[in-house]
Specification:
magnesium protoporphyrin IX methyltransferase activity, Rossmann fold, 11 helices
Length: 320
């Protein structure tokens, strides 16, 4: 079980995926057990990954990896991507998640067995994050009537469970393909089986928007695994903007920047896989906390979710 830092409120995170929320995933998880820790750098993986999935592939000693990294230039690959779509990081992200990235992450976030062991592990890690967000939000009472903005909703992995809990959800994503898939899944789960849910859940409002375009006021704003697409210079502004939309709580998850995780990310960038991916940015927890303090917010709870190939820092911030 992964637990939070003892600073502020202690928060112990679930490590088993709830069969209630993810029955098929829990079955797959039992069928294909995966070690709970990141393997040694000398261990070779038999799959190709990219900078977004931040997985470890092959390698030898840390010194050997450092030598290889010094000879590589993943930045040139990223610049070429930006030139192809005629813009910067945002345009690359939009293009990726409307095309190859959509197909890849739809499988990862879904329930198909057609995934490799890295993708399955990432699915489990992301599902743990979603389940811990639901627990964090419901610890203080029911969500009936609570307004929630799910910023970067993907295929609806969080928006749909929130609606089942009674929340009034606005779910947005930069990718039109992701939003269409999320709405499709929401209709299948919330409207088809509405007689089984009492009271009947309110269908989330799905919109195609980037983070900068979000507006309105919500009791809670949640942004999971999206800051990985923003360098810290832009992440500060995004954190401030998201906080301005929230009245009571802001939940963020991000890939933590440590020496070890940074090395793993750079190794992943050496092996971009068969399809192009987006640039991946890690963030130091101290930098995120500083950005929150600048706009009058403080971290109340924090925790770390890790699997073999997935690691994410989850924080809950409230007005100071």
């Amino acid at each position: 079980m992964a637990c939070s830092s003892p600073l502020f409120s202690a928060l112990c995170f679930h490590t088993n995926v709830s069969p209630k929320l993810y029955p098929k995933l829990n079955h797959t998880y039992r069928k294909k057990p995966i070690a709970p820790a990141i393997p040694p750098l000398s261990a070779a993986a038999d799959v190709a990954v990219d900078g977004t999935t931040i997985a470890v592939i092959g390698g030898g000693s840390v010194a050997a990896l450092a030598a290889v990294l010094s000879l590589s230039d993943p930045e040139k690959r990223r610049q070429a991507q930006a030139e192809e779509v005629g813009g910067g990081d945002k345009e690359v992200v939009r293009e990726y998640f409307n095309n190859n990235g959509f197909e890849r992450w739809k499988k990862i976030y879904g329930e198909t067995d057609d995934v490799n062991r890295v993708q399955l592990d990432i699915r489990i890690g992301h599902s743990k994050t979603v389940e811990n967000v639901i627990k964090m939000l419901t610890d203080e009472g029911p969500l009936n009537g609570v307004t929630v903005c799910d910023a970067g909703c993907g295929t609806g992995c969080l928006a749909i469970p929130l609606a089942k809990e009674g929340a009034i959800v606005t779910a947005t994503d930069i990718s039109a393909a992701m939003v269409a898939e999320a709405e499709k899944q929401a209709r299948e789960e919330l409207l088809t089986g509405k007689d089984e849910l009492s009271p009947a859940p309110v269908m989330p409002k799905f919109e195609v928007k980037d983070l900068e375009s979000l507006e309105g006021k919500y009791d809670t704003v949640v942004c999971l695994d999206v800051l990985i697409h923003y360098p810290q210079s832009k992440a500060d502004g995004m954190i401030a903007h998201l906080a301005s939309l929230a009245d009571k709580r802001l939940l963020l998850s991000f890939a933590p920047k440590t020496l070890y995780y940074d090395l793993l990310k750079r190794v992943g960038e050496l092996f971009p896989g068969p399809s192009k991916a987006t640039r991946a940015y890690l963030h130091a927890e101290a930098d995120v906390e500083r950005a929150l303090r600048k706009v009058g917010w403080r971290i109340r709870k924090r925790g770390l979710i890790t699997t073999q190939f997935y690691f994410s820092r989850l924080i809950e911030a409230v007005p100071a």
